[in-house]
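Why predict the complex rather than its parts? Because the way molecules touch one another can change local conformation, and only a joint prediction can capture that. The input here totals 915 residues.
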Amino acid sequence: MKRRLALVVLSGALATSSARAEEPAAQDPATLFREATDALAGERLVDAIAKLEALGDRGVVDAAVSFDRGVAYAMRARTSAGQPGDLGRAVHGFEEARELSHDGRTDDEAKRALVSLRAEVARRRARAGESAELAVSASLGRALVELASENTWSGLALAASLVLSVAIVLRARAQAGRAKVAANTTMGIAGAVLVATALLADAARDARLHLREAIVVTPGTRLLDARKVVLPGRDALAEGARVRLLDEEGGFSHIDTGSAEGWVGTNAVLPLAKRR
Amino acid sequence: MSSLRVVLVALLALVFFPSRAFAQDKAELSATVEPSTVEIGSAFRYQLKASVTGSGGNAPRSPQPGTLPEGMTVAGTSSSPMHMMRIVNGVTSQVDSLTTVWTVRATKLGTFTVGPPTVEIGGARRAAKAVKITVVPVGKAPKAPPRAQDPFDPFGGSPFDFFGQGPDPLGGAPSPFDPFKDLFGGDDDPRMRGPVDKRYSLPEPRAPKAFLHAVVDKPRAVVGEQITLSVYLYSLPETQLGSAQDVHVPSAPDFTRRPLADSGPSKHLGRAIVGDRAWDVELLLKDALFPVKTGLLVIGPMSLVLTNGRIGYRESESLTVDVGEPPLAGRPPGYVVGDVGNFALQATVSPRSATRGEPIGVTIELRGTGNLPTQLALPTAPGIEWMDAQVKESIGAQREEKIGGTRTFTYVVRADKEGAVDLGEVKLPYFDPEKRAYAVARASLGIVDLAKGTPRDAGVTDDADQVAIDLPKPRMSLEGGTERTYLTERRFYRVSLFGAPLACAIAVVGSRAFRKVRERQKGRAPDPARVEKERRAEAEAAVAADDGAKAVSAVARALEAAVFARTGVNARGATGSALVSELEATGVTADAARATAEALRACEDARFSPAGVSIDDARELWTRAKSAVEGLAKRAEGA
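Output of the joint prediction:
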């Protein structure tokens, strides 16, 4: 009897102990996401972030997850519990949401949030005596490619191909001089459009398949040279800056910021997920 | 006289050469080994007993072990002389004995002959019989029965050995109270003690005399999991190592390192079989390494220089550890890669009652083994502000196996709230490497009662730290993974993109080319041989019919075609003499040229005869024409 009582007391003590370890329950992504949004609504930001990051760890790639992760980090950055890097991770969430989303509203709202976040980063950099200039203009080629989606470029190329084909046939069959001129002109324009749009579609495809981009998530990240020594005369990279990942080697990532190339610690940048 | 001389000589001999007479004393020598079969690396007793019974004064001395085979070394020697006097029935006799025990270590397999041992008796060196010893691999030797305690055996036990352990030169621990323990060198040499430990055995030595050997306890690990790196120094028992200089510890840039063993002198671990010999093993370094990233991480070699015995530079192996991440399956939310071990959290909050905005102390103790995290994820709630933590730690090696201890985080919390405020719960998800599973350590902070007070930001207008971020509302449902399709990935895209215009262009150009070819084929002169053949066939058909006029015309055309085909002369419209001349100019004989011209003229005459022409005439003409053509053929053959 005494032994049973002792067991009961012991199990009760164990159950109420403040220090305990337990196995996590297996959760499906939908449940985990619902719990994350509940935590976000209740401003339990650490819980929300942990759950949203766990979704990412489990390979869930969804615009809503990225969007809410951006919201959670940005909310934490506004509180006193904000951690260094929260702004960068918030930027990462919204940028990724824009990459992944096929919803125009999500894209617009993420874009507005990004403007707000980058303004905050600029304000902090200005207060720290660093350059507040954040935007690094992309190359002309990249800018042209990003004017339209890959499918738009490829659709235009197909249309130009069709027009060129018809023009070739008409040119062959035309007897009248004016018809021949019209066919020649159409052939020239359609050919040029075909080449240009096909190249742009190919560049967009290449970017989709091979271009790896990342967001700088650590404040005060400085570019290093090939020997991993800080490059002199340069400001620290802006938190939330979008960079191109060129290579990874021994805990360092080779990046292209648009204005310079260099190395940073792998933990300083967070790669963006892309639609496949 | 002669007999007197003999007696005198005998007396002198007895007086002046007593030793010669003693040389006749009885001497007994015996040599033994115990045990007769030993494991490699173990020691055995090699004993020589010499006793001389006689009048005394010729005690055995200067014992020598004799020849020891290769692979056997003397680890220690002890000798015990004894003198006894006996008086039996008034007759006095003396016994001088010497017992010498050599402790010999066998480091080579096989059966060997040891000795013979020798001893000096009365100025002469006497030898006992050689003995055999068999050295077998570890674990193959028969178990020796416990030796009976011989009260007269000077090595059988010490009168000071209260615990009965005895100064066993074969490896038993000597009594701490034994005053003789320092008498004989070798028994106290720690390198000569301890059994062979199979854990340290190696197939081959890495270098002669002494070498370094580095090992890790696991070849694969996850980020943050403890890997134990040990570096051993192996040396042959007879090698004097001296001091180590220019010592470089292994480099491990991709790991955080904590020592598991004291950084004092090396620790002798025992002996190990390397190749076919026993080596002494010392532990030089034992560190806990925690990988900080994934990949094939390299641990550099340890190196040192041993100054004695010209051993010189020695270097251990470079090691590689395959480091990955803990599994994704079952990974709890908030898990930080690198938090690996077995942890527990305990929290204390003081005071539990305060006024709004007053500081509250929160102490969270993290305890366990493994890679204890340096920071904790704190619960956040509106109005609750956590100050930076003060961290104290007591972390070190536990039983030289694991790194562990406690890390205490002390926070100051300000709650800009009133009433019962739940501070939340601190959670630490971690990966337990022994169970290969995740777990979460938790500590509930509980509720604090906050009395009314002044709000923190009442009347404060400073917005220097205010973060102004315009945030959208979070998404409440997953957008869903609609697979996007791309035109560029469709097979028809590449084909139709340039294929369609190209196909059209090829079709246009092809049709034009085809048309031109046909037109060119139409304008080209027919082959004379083919024409001749066709005309000949027409003529044959015409003469087979019954229309004489048509037959003559056909014959004329066949003849003209034959002339053209064979000579290149166009006979149409040519007059008789002119045709003959032209044909002759091409090498046709005059007869054949005339025959041809006449046949043609006959055909012309018949065609334009007002009376017409019969079919029989036409057939005759055809016969003449064929004959003329044959004449042309002869010319052709002759040409």
